[in-house]
User: Which sequence fits this backbone?
């Protein structure tokens, strides 16, 4: 192939060194090697300190040299691969011209190749921009924005401003600048993406011109097909070559701080939590919008983890970290418990001994808990109880397999026994405690969640006429009652409260109320499940209400566990059954408004 033709179509070839340049470079390397050997020999003549282990030193030096050799070998293989792509490129150009293309076809081929090369370069820029944002390694040219766009940094140095307030304002300033940098990078990415689309359109237009040059012949002439294949072959080789070069350029980001891995782990946990939430709400997370959202979450976390902290902000973080550790030490030393209160947004400080005394008093008064004296953790036993009950149901198709996998199946590798803790109620005399059984990873928690999802909508529908949803709904019902002419000066408001409702509901009565609720279902089935199946699942949840407290195992023998999702629905069903007689009497004799607000 003529040199001028090769030069005209040379879009992407490296400028490799000539033979003379390579020989000079080889001589330089040999000179450096002799110098290093001389320095090593001189070092050997010096007395060796006793603390130096020659074997260890030799091992370290060998490893160091081999590491350098590995890098050189990898770089050599990469350049050899690039040279192979260039040789193939030269051959593909020659193949194209051997087909004797017309001037128009040559012009179209050059436009396609040039647009393809420009597109690949733009894609390379886009990939690097994304990687910079991904690892929070923005171009150094953006650092000028840290000190040149405002006067806030100078103003914050004035001693008149409180130190904490100054740190807060400085953080807001840095956050604003960081967001501006991110917006600039995003705008640049959008611009590059538009350039890529423009080159794609140019390539498509030129290929269409080549096809149209056949004058509508069907099939397309063989000579034109060969020319288009030759153009596409070189285009494909250019793509492979560009990918090899891009891989090298992106490798400079591989030595990012180790905190990226931490961000990845945290991001994975957060993304998994989102996926679980979407699954629980019957929403697919395979949608492209969901994937983009998850990617954005991971990128945000990585940016946060890799953002270098300013010295002042770092000093404040270290100070607050020491303060937190000191506070924890004093709390532990003073036997103090800090808990959020039951019905307010404040924290309550109480004595460990006082909490323990009230907890034992609560257990004694309710008589709802039995200590498991064997000292054996019942966690694995609960797992067997769940599987023993569910397996026959699955075989008999009493339970849908998909529902079992999605909602109820426990993870044998992560199940844990629930633990009991208490929330103080300072709005009541003596600050009593509300018991909470944390059973997030308990064996039957999935079944409890499923029953709650299954029964609560039906219960809300059945009791809609006698239930106040919230305070606003209560006011509206009162207005309707007034408009009907029944709101008189003699009208009485009667309210009552049930102490320890969840703990004290009788189980047999609650199960019976649950069975009566099924009368309002079609064919005594709720979403295809019989009331007998639902009842057995409910008993399973109640029978596995065990927990650990103060290094002892307990089983709840009355009511349901506060903290179990199904307990609230079961308690509401029991109260609905209990109040039916009262409601009917009031409606027939007093014609008054009846409602409840839990």
Assistant:
């Amino acid at each position: 192939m003529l040199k001028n033709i090769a030069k005209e179509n040379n879009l992407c070839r490296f400028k490799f060194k000539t033979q003379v340049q390579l020989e000079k470079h080889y001589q330089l390397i040999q000179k450096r090697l002799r110098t290093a050997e001389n320095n090593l020999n001189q070092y050997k003549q010096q007395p060796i300190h006793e603390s130096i282990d020659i074997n260890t030193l030799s091992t370290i030096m060998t490893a160091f040299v081999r590491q350098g050799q590995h890098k050189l070998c990898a770089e050599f293989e990469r350049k050899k691969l690039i040279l192979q792509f260039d040789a193939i490129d030269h051959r593909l150009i020659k193949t194209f011209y051997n087909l004797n293309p017309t001037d128009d076809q040559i012009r179209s081929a050059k436009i396609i190749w040039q647009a393809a090369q420009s597109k690949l370069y733009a894609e390379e820029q886009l990939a690097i921009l994304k990687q910079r944002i991904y690892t929070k390694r923005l171009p150094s040219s953006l650092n000028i924005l840290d000190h040149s766009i405002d006067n806030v940094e100078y103003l914050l140095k004035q001693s008149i401003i409180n130190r904490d307030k100054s740190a807060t304002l400085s953080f807001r300033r840095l956050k604003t600048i960081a967001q501006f940098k991110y917006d600039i990078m995003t705008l640049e990415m959008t611009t590059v993406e538009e350039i890529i689309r423009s080159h794609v359109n140019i390539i498509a237009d030129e290929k269409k011109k080549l096809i149209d040059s056949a004058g509508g012949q069907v099939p397309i002439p063989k000579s034109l097909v060969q020319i288009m294949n030759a153009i596409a072959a070189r285009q494909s080789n250019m793509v492979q070559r560009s990918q090899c070069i891009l891989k090298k350029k992106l490798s400079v980001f591989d030595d990012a701080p180790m905190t990226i891995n931490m961000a990845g782990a945290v991001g994975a946990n957060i993304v998994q939590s989102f996926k679980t939430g979407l699954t629980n709400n019957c929403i697919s997370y395979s949608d492209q919008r969901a994937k983009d959202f998850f990617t954005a979450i991971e990128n945000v976390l990585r940016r946060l983890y890799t953002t270098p902290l300013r010295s002042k902000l770092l000093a404040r973080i270290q100070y607050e970290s020491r303060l937190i550790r000191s506070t924890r030490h004093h709390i532990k030393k003073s036997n103090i418990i800090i808990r959020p209160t039951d019905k307010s947004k404040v924290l309550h400080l109480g004595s460990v001994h006082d909490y323990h005394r009230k907890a034992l008093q609560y257990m004694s008064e309710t008589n709802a808990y039995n200590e498991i004296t064997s000292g054996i953790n019942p966690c694995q036993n609960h797992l067997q109880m769940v599987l023993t009950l569910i397996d026959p149901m699955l075989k008999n198709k009493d339970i849908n397999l998909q529902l079992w996998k999605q909602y109820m199946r426990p993870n044998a590798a992560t199940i844990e026994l629930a633990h009991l803790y208490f929330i103080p109620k300072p709005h009541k005399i003596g600050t009593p405690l509300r018991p909470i059984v944390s059973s997030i990873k308990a064996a039957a928690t999935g079944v409890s969640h499923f029953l709650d999802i299954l029964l609560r909508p039906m219960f809300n529908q059945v009791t809609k006429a006698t239930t106040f949803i919230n305070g606003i709904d209560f006011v509206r019902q009162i207005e309707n009652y007034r408009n009907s002419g029944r709101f008189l000066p003699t009208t009485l408001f009667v309210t009552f409260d049930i102490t320890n409702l969840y703990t004290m509901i009788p189980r047999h009565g609650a199960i019976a109320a649950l069975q009566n609720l099924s009368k309002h279902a079609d064919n005594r089935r709720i979403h295809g499940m019989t009331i007998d199946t639902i009842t057995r699942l409910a008993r399973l949840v109640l029978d596995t209400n065990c927990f650990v407290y103060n290094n002892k195992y307990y089983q709840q023998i009355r009511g349901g566990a506060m903290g179990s999702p199904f307990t609230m629905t079961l308690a509401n069903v029991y109260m609905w059954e209990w109040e039916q007689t009262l409601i009917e009497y009031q409606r027939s004799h007093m014609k008054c408004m009846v409602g409840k607000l839990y």
Observations:
- Residues 163-212 form the longest helix (50 residues).
- The chain has a mean pLDDT of 80.
- Strands lie at 336-340, 347-351, 369-371, 418-424, 433-438, 525-526, 529-530, 546-549, 552-556.
- The longest strand covers residues 418-424.
